[in-house]
Amino acid sequence: MIRKLFPYTKGYRLKSLLAALTIVGEVVVEVNIPFLMADIVNIGIANRDTGFILQRGLMMILMALLSLGLGMLSARFASVASAGFAKNLRGDLFERVQAFSFANVDRFSTASLITRLTTDVNTIQNTYMSAVRTFIRAPFMLVAATIMAVRISADLAVVFLFALPFMAVFVGIFAVKTFPRFKAMLSKIDAMNASVQENLTAMRVVKAYVREEHEDEKFTFSAKEVRDYQIKAEKLLVTAMPLAQYVVYICMVAVCYMGGVHIIGGKLLSGDLISFISYIGQVLSAVMMVAMMMVMLVMSKASASRIAEVLDEKPSINDDEADAELNVNDGSIEFDDVSFSYSGDEGNPNLEHISLRIASGETIGIIGGTGSAKSTLVQLIPRLYDATSGSVRVAGHDVREYKLDTLRRSVSMVLQKNVLFSGTIRDNLKWGDENASEEEIEAACSAAAADGFVKSFPDGYDTELGQGGVNVSGGQKQRLCIARALISKPRIIILDDSTSAVDTATDAAIRKALREELSSTTTIIIAQRISSVMDADRIVVMDEGRISDIGTHEELMQRSEIYREVYISQQKGVA
Question: Looking at residue 467, what is its pLDDT?
């Protein structure tokens, strides 16, 4: 695990080293302070030498200030190093997630990925900060204070040296027992985050159906589970600290008793006993830090294993063997005996034996009932998913031969769920082409029947959109998404039920503009309304993951029972 995370310290290793060196310097200075205190008692007070007392007292003050300064420097170096480490790690994690296919994201869930990018990285960051300070300070203090104590009295040092192995065993047992509990706790945090994300995304639906109380209960249940698992995970750890303190305090009582006997017997000076007890306090402090280190290590181990899962995840779709020089020269598409399963199980296909040829510049309509795999079919073209068997070709080449960037820049897709981002309308439209001119933006909006309502806003194209485009209607959002796709000037454009929220007149206007503006572009229109596809060159009728029929509107009306039934039912609805 350390080997996997170490590369992310790049650029901050010097700061980490300086944090470690300054904390070692702090310990060296700190362990000498009790030694000076012993001199004050044994020499200064015993001889009533005020000058000696003042000299040693001044040295103690200077050492304390030096220790404070070194400690502050160490804290600063560690904070900068850990923040930089977290930045590197979080950046690479986000880059990995961006490279994931839909299948990879589905395996982890969005909420879990958010938790790993935030909570888990924060845990690792805190552990790293402790690693370059506390993990150095505690063992070094333990060794240095023990050596100084042994120098004063080897007999007394045996007392707490005998107790240290028992304490180490206690802490080790607790660490092993608590790791699986912390891992389970983090999975419950994932579930709680999923509940929050779902609720915030669907806030309008929640309010529309007056389900606030239900959502409150659901969240309360998730929060209660997190609390219960946190208590279960930390219950053992909070027991470890008092046990360690109990053992050390017993040692201190034994040392005080034996030290008193040694003083009476003339084997030990009073100042040496006071100094020895100070060193025991430093040992106690080091042991407590070791116990805290074990707590952090247990928590960070659980988080690190979850982060490693993301780092080790191989994107199910990659272009490592693709030809970087290959370009999409036209918009022709061919499905050659394609089958696909979301689960990867060929025995449970979502698409089955699809064979279809689409000429460049052709307009294809796709229609079918809910669950007929219309969207699944078109998502194979830009490789949002890969076919389980068979092949998908664009411009005569298998889609796997193209670099993903090249392929997806040539295939614009307006998904069922229209997403706009925070920023201005112009910012959102430039996702299609960041170098698009004002004329190109206006032309795309005109083709998508969006220019009218955009210009009606006081700020026009500079109108700020709320998160997810909450200040525009569903139909306006759809038209902006279509305009964004048009700006990229694709070889292929796919409209996945992307005019469902506009009226029939606007739908017709958009289709007319697409025919005129994109005469050389292959257009695929998925729709529920037959009126949206009836003037397409050909219409594909999907049924339960298979192609039921292909033809023009007139041909399908004659021979396709599924198509005819849908048309008649929609005509009755209009009547």
Answer: 67
* pTM, 2 dp: 0.70
Computed on alpha carbons and rounded to an integer, the radius of gyration of the chain in Å comes to 35
Instruction: Decide if 511 contacts 535 (C-beta within 8 A).
Output: yes
Q: Are 404 and 317 in contact (CB under 8 A)?
A: yes
* Model confidence band, residue 575 (pLDDT cutoffs 50, 70, 90): very low
Tokens of 481: 């998404």
- With contact defined as beta carbons under 8 Å apart, do 513 and 462 qualify? no
- Looking at residue 318, the DSSP 8-state letter turns out to be -
The residue written with tokens 């399908």 in the block is 556
Question: Could you tell me which of 126, 37, 138 has the C-alpha nearest to residue 81?
Answer: 126
270 Cβ contact list (under 8 Å, min separation 6)? 41, 42, 263
CA pair distance 543, 558, nearest whole angstrom: 18
What is the C-alpha to C-alpha distance for residues 168 and 172, in angstroms, rounded to an integer? 6
Burial zone of 69 (CB within 10 Å; 0-12 exposed, 13-18 middle, 19+ buried): middle
As a whole number of angstroms, the distance between CA 279 and CA 273 comes to 10
At 40, list the tokens: 């004050």
Residue identified by tokens 């003083």 is 263
Identify which of 356, 288, 302 has the alpha carbon closest to the alpha carbon of residue 134.
288
Amino acid letter, residue 14: L
Kindly report the number of other CB atoms within 10 A of residue 563's CB atom: 23
Phi, psi for 421 (deg, rounded to 5): -110, 160
pLDDT above 60 (res 436): yes
**Euclidean distance between CA atoms 380 and 400, whole angstroms:** 11
Provide the 8-state DSSP code for 211.
-
464-465 and 363-368: which strand pairing?
Answer: unpaired
Q: How far apart are CA 277 and CA 259, in angstroms?
A: 9
Report which of 345, 264, 356, 348 is spatially closest to residue 542, judged by C-alpha positions. Answer: 356
The stretch 556-573 carries a mean pLDDT of: 84
Query: What confidence tens digit (pLDDT) does each residue in 117-136 have?
Result: 888 899 899 888 888 888 88
Count H helices, E strands: the chain?
20, 12
Length of the chain: 575
Task: Return all residues near 300 (Cβ < 8 A) that are at least 6 apart.
Answer: 123, 124, 126, 127
pLDDT single digits (tens) 364-378: 999 988 888 898 999
Rounded to whole angstroms, how far apart are CA atoms 300 and 218?
A: 29
Cα gap 498→165, rounded to integer Å: 69
Pairwise CA distance, residues 463 & 458, whole Å: 8
